[in-house]
Amino acid sequence: MTELLKSLRKHMCKDTNQPNSLNETSPNNVESKTSEQVGYDAEWTDPAKLPDMTTIRKMDAFFGKGSEMEDLYFLPRKGLMSDKIETPKGYKTLFSGYNYLGLGADPAVIERTVKAVRDFGTHAGAARMVGGEITLHGELERKLAQFVGTEDAIVTVGGYVANMTAIGYFLGKNDLLIHDALMHNSGVMGGVLSQARRISFRHNDLDHLETLLEANRGSVERTIILVEGAYSMDGDIANLPRLLEIKHKYNCWLMVDEAHSVGTLGETGRGLSELYDTDPREIDLIMGTLSKSFGSCGGFICCNAQFGTFLRNLAPGFLMYSTGISPANTAAALAAVEMLEQEPERLRKLMSNSKFFCDTARAANLNVGLATGQVPIVPIILGDDVMTLNAAGALLKEGMIAHPILHPVVERGGSRIRFFITADHREEDMARCISIMKEAVSQ
Questions:
Q1: Of the CATH numbers 3.40.640.10, 1.10.10.10, 3.40.50.1010, 3.40.1170.60, which one belongs to the domain with range 105-342?
Q2: What is the CA angle 346-347-348, rounded to 5?
Q3: What pTM value is reported for the model?
Q4: Is the pLDDT of residue 427 over 50?
Q5: What pLDDT is stored for residue 28 in this prediction?
Q6: Which positions are annotated as active-site residues?
Q7: For residues 299 and 287, is the Cβ–Cβ distance under 8 A?
Q8: pLDDT tens across 310-320, in order?
Q9: 125 CB-contact burial (10 Å; exposed 0-12 / middle 13-18 / buried 19+)
């Protein structure tokens, strides 16, 4: 197990801050080499000899077929996603799915999705600008803008793409991306794509953010402050009022990744702005996903009309280089947003379940870190990698699936099992889960 953990860390700690040597070296400056010097042999092209194959083999030995943990990853599901899922190994209680409001399995959402496939077919068929646009695309974008409270919204095929494309388009090499240290990889990689300077500030430490802006803002042109509305590994939230103050003070754009907070946070699920009773139009770019609260697949950016025009017409990930989101995913998301408005009890149940799980874990003297139960993400932090894997195994033996998160995905000493709570979860299952965790930790 120790060797597996070392391999995983080596693989995941690859330095994305290193310059791209291909971009920095002109072909005219490359010394001519013979094929023997370059090494045109199987060592460079045989997949079995790639460095990461060592990690793959160790993972397969620990998690693969025949191991005690074989059902932890890539366990196929037979039916709909809910709090309990049917697998080839029987029914399991799932704490790793983010079908937060249960809308991905709702009969009305499914019916609307099936109708869209009958009406429009199975795919967009082209980039939206050049033949792939369907009427549902515009309907969904208008609905998202109205729901979040902005002038415009742009839908993409994925949330990862939305972050990368927006940041990659709006920033360049004379600009600055300053982001929370726990920012999702998609936002960081958007900074890499943009070639902007990148600086991270300590998690939710806005005094540190100000110190860094004080030292760096004057030497760049545009600056984006990038945070998450709800942090996906810790279940805590950003301080929006203070961020808005800093944004105005230093003349920056503020971008908030609300992948886990739109649909879960605020009285009606409209996210961070609603929670703090602020105008969402003060946030320059609000990113969200359709794959969590809205039971579909895709991403979106909510923004003002000018930014929407730029993104829709000029940004590569929205333009003619990417196909449009499928009719099925568009219809499912549109139906889900409408149902959230019509059935607020879903959100109330989600909030109640999130608080119950967090409070029960804390009462059992389990370390939930920064989580408060405001959002449906609750980590139980164990610190030790082996203990964390063993606890995940104990849950699995009892028919419960929750996944371990280890360094370097989280800080060293912060190994945890992350639990996604949904409106479908039952208190008795959540209480039993906490009981199993407490027993596993005490051994």
A1: 3.40.640.10
A2: 95
A3: 0.89
A4: yes
A5: 43
A6: 232, 260, 292
A7: yes
A8: 999 999 888 76
A9: middle
